[in-house]
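User: Write out your own:

AI:
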Amino acid sequence: MATSPRILLVDDEPDLLDLMELTLAKMGLETDRAESVAEAQTRLAEAHYELCLTDMRLGDGDGLEVITRASTLATPVPVAVITAYGNAGNAVAALKAGAFDYLAKPVALDQLRALVKSALKIPAPAQADDPARDLIGESAAMQDVRARIAKLARTQAPVHIAGESGSGKELAARLIHRLGSRADKPFVAVNCGAIPETLMESEFFGYRKGAFTGAESDREGFFQAADGGTLFLDEVADLPLSMQVKLLRVLQEKKVRKVGATGEEAVDVRIISATHQNLSALVEAGRFRQDLYYRLNVIDLVMPSLRDRAEDIPDMARYLLDKLGGTGVKLDRDAEKALGAYAFPGNVRELENTLERALALCEDQHITAADLNLAPAPAASPSAGSKYPLQDYLDEMERAAILEALEQTRYNKTAAARVLGVTFRSLRYRLERLGIE
């Protein structure tokens, strides 16, 4: 006969322990209780638990000690913490230490039940054949990324993914979702830079019928669409300051108000954000709110550029050729050499575009260096290469900036010109001069 999941409750307030025990008993769960760090550590050593729920402030220590003990067991126990209302610092510290999630006092029973249900679905540590193998490459950098993704999938902490355009930030976000307890719920990806500022509030939070001209019926927003799952905010640095304030409030309260509505709706969403820009530098420049930065960047993941893992290019090229329908097509030695020598400012996305073009041009199932049509480029980024002759160096810097703007705007030249701060005619001239198709 299967036994009910057992949960360890750690708090020095007997009334709160009684309330949680009663609530979990109604869910068919068994509980043990501890009123100190020492007692909790003893309990963890003597029995196996599916979840530990601990207060952050205890008479003989704090919840971080319980998290540390639970994470070092032969079979790690997920830990959620209870922290005083408004004390975001404690919650962030707990999440960084490895906590699964947190609750604010006074504990809302509906949130407690939702947290426990989510925690009991946490997957086991990822194995060698887990979906994170979708990240191609055996370089040390990619092995580190896969290991970190497996850990991030076991928490509910907000994750910020940094990396250059085309380095696989959205793929990493999807893998964190697929390996986590929310895998059976929606994954909603939003490109923050592609939404007009005037439409942002209605797109994110939804609207009521009649809220504005054209609002002919109620509509759900991104948060409602992702309820129970994951909301991926791509290029989050592009959010205007006015929207950053509203997003911060939703993250704090876990409630949204539709445009035109008087009441708020509770939402249960895990946030993963990403950008190719340096968020901390934007905070210093006053272009990104510091409080929102700390909310989003609880745990970070950095996706390496393709030039920083050049040893992965052959495997990546073979994988992409198969994906593009080029099964059996070979890269000749000169083509492989050319790929290895190219800086790939557009990273994996640029490599895929390059191979797709070469696949259309090649003959006899062999791709040559000429088919790749790669512009001469240093093996490292322009800033790391030789600065002489000066014009060549400046051309490479300009090329990298233009390609990045094109990648960011999904090759919309008008939008790319706006990002670069030049006219469309000027951009077209520069594309022709630098030989960028």
